[in-house]
Amino acid sequence: MKNRLKVLRAERDWSQADLAERIRVSRQAVNAIETGKHDPSLALAFRIARLFETHAEDIFFADEE
Amino acid sequence: MPAIGKIFYSPRTFDLVFAGAGLLAVFGLVSLAGKPFPAIEAPDSPLLKGVIVLAVVIAGGAMSLVTTRVDQKCADDFVFSTLTKSAFQGFMGYILASTLWEVLFSHSIGAISTPISMMIAMGSWSLAYLLTRWKGTRA
């Protein structure tokens, strides 16, 4: 699964630690998601989407898309 | 989550724990490999021993169910996935290593004792954790 997390974070000028604090995960978790090393759970994906005031499918999409 | 829980369930903490466990496993394997261990004597009551073993397995399973639930509640998404994936890989590694030893070396070099088995399990989980942290939970 690919994602636009890094772009959305950069647009708000947040560090990985800032974003991690906002979605209540570790900084390593944010880094792993951004680099494609970890796919977040549905609950976390929805939490991220809520933070960026958008839909989960606008942030996360399948590899082949 | 309280601050203490956040520190305890941080990736850094588990990195340190598994680094320590891995080193301990290597040290244990090297130091225990050549040590003789007494043979297991036949119990007076095989049935009773069988029942006790079964009870211990059930008690261990129940404890792991509770502790895993606590881990899932306290650890974040990434930490919990890393722990569970590496636990599964570590367990499979332990089973395969034990089987390979039994098939290839048991008759010529000798069987492995319970403490060595535990070191293999610990080392296998630590190695799997290292690989999962390096390659990610998707690898």
TrEMBL record, chain A:
Q: Name one Pfam family in it.
A: HTH_3
Question: What InterPro entries does the record point to?
Answer: Cro/C1-type_HTH, Lambda_DNA-bd_dom_sf
Q: Name one GO molecular function term.
A: DNA binding
Q: Matching SMART domains, A to Z?
A: HTH_XRE
Keyword terms of this UniProt record? DNA-binding
Domain HTH cro/C1-type intervals: 5-59
Q: Which CDD domains match?
A: HTH_XRE
| Name of the protein described by the UniProt record | Helix-turn-helix domain-containing protein
- What broad taxonomic lineage does this protein's source fall under? Bacteria, Pseudomonadati, Pseudomonadota, Alphaproteobacteria, Sphingomonadales
From TrEMBL, chain B:
- Keywords carried by this UniProt record: Membrane, Transmembrane, Transmembrane helix
Keyword Transmembrane helix tagged:
yes
| Annotated TM spans | 16-34, 46-66, 78-97, 109-131
Protein name in the entry: Uncharacterized protein
Q: What is the lineage of its organism?
A: Bacteria, Pseudomonadati, Pseudomonadota, Alphaproteobacteria, Sphingomonadales
